[in-house]
Design goal:
- The longest helix has 20 residues, at about 100-120.
- This protein has a 7-stranded antiparallel beta sheet with strand order 1-2-7-3-4-5-6.
- The model has no long low-confidence stretch (mean pLDDT about 95).
- The protein has one domain: Umud Fragment, subunit A (Ribbon).
- It starts with a helix and ends with a helix.
- It has 2 helices and 7 strands; from the N terminus they run H-E-E-E-E-E-E-E-H.
- Helices cover about 25% and strands about 30% of the residues.
- Strand 4 (about 60-70) and strand 5 form a beta hairpin.
- It is an alpha+beta fold and about 120 residues long.
Length: about 120
């Protein structure tokens, strides 16, 4: 996705925009072909499903695990490894899907595991 198009989407996400999900990395929360509304927020919490621009320029919808300096740590629910850090400028917004307390706690525990592995190095 080119930069001007991404910037236009970011401006539109201040209200709400819809995306069709492709792939199975967020199953069963978001199945392939599901349409979700995305809205930019001031703050994102662990467990939120964020739509962001990847380093390859694609859009992805993955769960936020935690914060890292000037970026956020995300991971697809069915993925084995977390994503590279996602800068705030790369985030379109959060998907309008219910986030259970269990999802938030799980995200924080996964992030804690990442931090502990880094500290152990």
């Amino acid at each position: 996705m080119n930069t001007p198009l991404f910037q236009a989407l970011r401006e539109m996400s201040a209200d709400s925009i819809s995306f069709r999900i492709r792939g199975a990395c967020m199953t069963p929360v978001l199945d392939d072909g599901t349409t979700v509304s995305v809205r930019a927020r001031r703050f994102y919490l662990p467990g939120d499903v964020l739509v962001f621009r990847t380093n390859a320029g694609d859009l992805a919808a993955h769960r936020m695990l935690g914060w890292r300096r000037a970026a956020l740590v995300t991971k697809g629910d069915t993925c084995e490894v977390h994503d590279p850090p996602v800068s705030r400028q790369a985030i379109l917004g959060a998907a309008d899907v219910p986030v259970r307390l269990r999802d938030r706690v799980s995200a924080l525990l996964q992030f804690g595991g990442i931090v502990l592995r880094r500290l152990a190095r």
